[in-house]
Design goal:
The complex is a heterodimer of chains A (about 150) and B (about 425). Chain A starts with a strand and ends in a 7-residue tail after the last strand. Chain A is α+β, with helices and mostly antiparallel strands. Chain A has five helices and eight strands; from the N terminus they run βααββαββαββαβ. Chain B has three domains: about 1-105 and about 240-305, 3-Layer(bba) Sandwich (FAD/NAD(P)-binding domain), CATH 3.50.50; about 120-235, 3-Layer(bba) Sandwich (FAD/NAD(P)-binding domain); about 325-410, FAD/NAD-linked reductase, C-terminal dimerisation domain (Enolase-like, domain 1). A five-stranded parallel β-sheet of chain B has the order 3-2-1-7-18. A five-stranded parallel β-sheet of chain B has the order 9-16-10-11-12, with helices on one face. In chain B, helix 1 (about 10-20) runs parallel beside helix 8. The longest helix of chain B has 15 residues, at about 290-305. Classes of the chains: A alpha+beta (about 150), B alpha/beta (about 425). The interface of A and B includes residues 5, 8, 47, 93 and 151 of A.
Chain lengths: ~150, ~425
């Protein structure tokens, strides 16, 4: 299965991945409206690592685990693994109990701003290919096969 | 191969699904004593409030049972397990099995209350049918009394909010959710719920009920009385083990199983709220009646029933729940005599960590929920806190708590 991998040494922490993620997951697909009106929670987030002299960054999103804890913990059946092994959340069934947040070892699931559901990376299945990867200016996030050489 | 499963909830459904993924031909039958197919059990309070529509309560898609070739018998109460002849009697029928799973769940605990019979307005709150009956019985003038300020009682109160005239919650403990929260965390939750006009009477129990066909008055342990139109009993649950017990299967508080979810009878497995499992933190055999636990155990039982050798994952107490928008996430244990407890409190926000011997053994987060799973992982993986990049007491948790190498291994999926 192809997943998104973040390369810490290349991440500038610019946050473009978050901007593109929100826009791609908005109704309007408009960058301004997505941010100002729709209040979308990004499925990817830039995490900061502070060291005494400088800061480092890496991009974090759902790892689409082989044996996802969030799917097991989900009390409503909203979180599921689809036929392509992508972990997805059905917003119509999600009640935002946050059982998935309780068990995700990556901290990669967030509550939506409206409090009605959770948000996570869906690998842009409905968009086509992951917009965060396509728009990263420094190739810090890549879509790779799990057995790809670069990960070894 | 004939697989028979008693119980159609988290454990039963996931067992059936796992069996089907490994055995395409075997005959899978589920016996359910409920009137509808598997639903998200905790959602019955959302159904009561109207937040979740009946059609959205189902745990699996409409065509799930058909697609997975699972024969589901609803309204079919299993009565007896005939271990010798490998049969289960249910609803005047006999169901044969090669491998049996008991996933019979919990039953509500009913406390000793004088004059309590099966009055028409007395309910428990564990099933969709009970929730539906409550929904049909209430009106805007109803005075509701709930015995039990645990998770189930509080969720019932939330579900009824705005639909009835008065809600009073009674508990014997000095705080709400006493099995999960310490007093200071419980007070935050209680104050928040009280703001909605829900009344709490703590340190008291229900001693007696009065009335005819219906309970009309509740008499408390201090002789105080309350008017009552609807009485909901939510003081706790107990494992439903009578089937196993009557079949001479080894039980204690719950059904005793090994790490493959196998009971003392080799062809009979058990999973979910009806079993005891090893608590990772206390190392004791406990009943951990939790949804994620039931799912994991169901999957494990299913895999083993289908001929694989699969060990059950470790478990410990954990909860994620909200009351009127206030979010509570907790895991592990509340505290102990030698525990090092760290509290970070700011208004309605709380972060409480319970640390012992360089391990995180419990946490409570109120309105501070992002990345909670990293704390859960620290408990689950028994991570030595001194080996982390920073002191978890001093700042919010993140994946940056792990060393660079460890973090890379996690993100690159090397630990899967």
């Amino acid at each position: 299965m192809k997943r998104i991998y973040a390369f810490e040494d290349k991440c500038l922490g610019c946050g473009l991945c978050e901007v593109y993620c929100r826009t791609a997951h908005s109704k309007s697909k408009d960058i301004i409206k997505a941010h100002k009106e729709e209040n979308i929670v990004s499925g990817i987030s830039i995490e900061e690592i502070m060291s005494p002299k400088s800061a480092f960054y890496f991009a974090l999103q759902c790892r689409h685990c082989k044996d996802p804890k969030c799917v097991k913990a989900c009390i409503s059946g909203a979180m599921y693994k689809d036929e392509n092994d992508i972990v997805r959340n059905n917003k119509d069934k999600c009640v935002a109990c946050l059982s998935c947040v309780l068990v995700c070892p990556f901290g990669a699931i967030k509550k939506n701003t409206d409090g009605k559901a959770v948000s996570k990376c869906d690998l842009c299945v409905e968009v086509g290919s992951p917009v965060c990867v396509e728009n990263c200016p420094n190739e810090a996030i890549k879509l790779l096969d799990e057995d790809s050489e670069i990960l070894k | 191969m004939k697989y028979l499963i008693i119980g159609d909830s988290a454990a039963g459904v996931n067992a059936a699904q796992t069996i089907r993924s490994k055995d395409k031909e075997g005959l899978i039958t589920i016996l359910s004593n409920e009137s509808i197919a598997a639903y998200g059990r905790p959602l019955i309070s959302y159904y009561l409030s109207g937040k979740v529509l009946p059609e959205n309560i189902f745990y699996r898609n409409k065509n799930f049972y058909k697609k997975e070739k699972i024969n589901l018998f609803l309204n079919t109460q299993a009565q007896e397990i005939d271990v010798k002849n490998k049969k289960v009697n249910a609803a005047q029928k006999e169901f044969e099995y090669d491998k049996l799973l008991i996933a019979s769940g919990s039953l509500p605990l009913i406390p000793q209350i004088k004059n309590l019979k099966e009055q028409k307005n007395v309910f428990t709150f564990l099933t969709f049918d009970e929730s539906r009956k409550i929904k049909e019985s209430i009106n805007p003038d109803s005075k509701v009394v709930i015995a039990g300020a645990g998770l189930i009682g509080l969720k019932a109160a939330e579900g009824l909010y705005g639909k009835v005239a008065k809600i009073t919650v009674i508990d014997l403990a000095d705080r709400v959710m006493a099995s999960v929260l310490d007093k200071s965390a419980a007070d935050i939750i209680q104050n928040h719920i009280e703001k909605k006009g829900i009344e709490f009477i703590l340190n008291k129990s229900v001693a007696e009920v009065e009335g005819g066909e219906k309970v009309e008055k509740i008499i408390l342990s201090d002789a105080k009385t309350l008017d009552c139109d609807i009485f909901i009993i939510a003081v706790g649950v107990r494992p439903n083990i009578s089937l196993a017990k009557n079949a001479q299967i080894r039980t204690s508080k719950g059904i005793i199983v090994n790490e493959y979810m196998q009971t003392s009878e080799s062809d009979i497995y058990a999973a979910g709220d009806c079993v005891e499992s090893l608590d990772l933190i206390s190392n004791e055999s406990k009943v951990l009646a939790l949804w994620p636990n039931a799912v994991s155990q169901g999957e494990t039982a299913g895999a083993n029933m289908a001929g694989e050798k699969k060990l059950v994952p470790s478990s410990f107490a954990m909860n994620a729940i909200s009351f009127f928008g206030m979010q509570l996430i907790s895991a592990g244990i509340i505290g102990g005599s030698d525990a090092d407890i760290y509290v970070d409190k700011n208004g309605d926000k709380l972060r409480r960590l319970n640390i012992a011997n360089d391990n995180l053994i419990g946490f409570v987060l109120i309105n501070d929920n992002q990345r909670a799973g990293i704390y859960t992982a620290l408990i689950n993986d028994r991570v030595k806190l001194s080996e982390l990049e920073y002191d978890i007491k001093l700042k919010d948790i993140g994946l940056n708590v792990y060393t660079k190498e460890k973090r890379r291994d996690k993100i690159f999926g090397k630990e899967e």
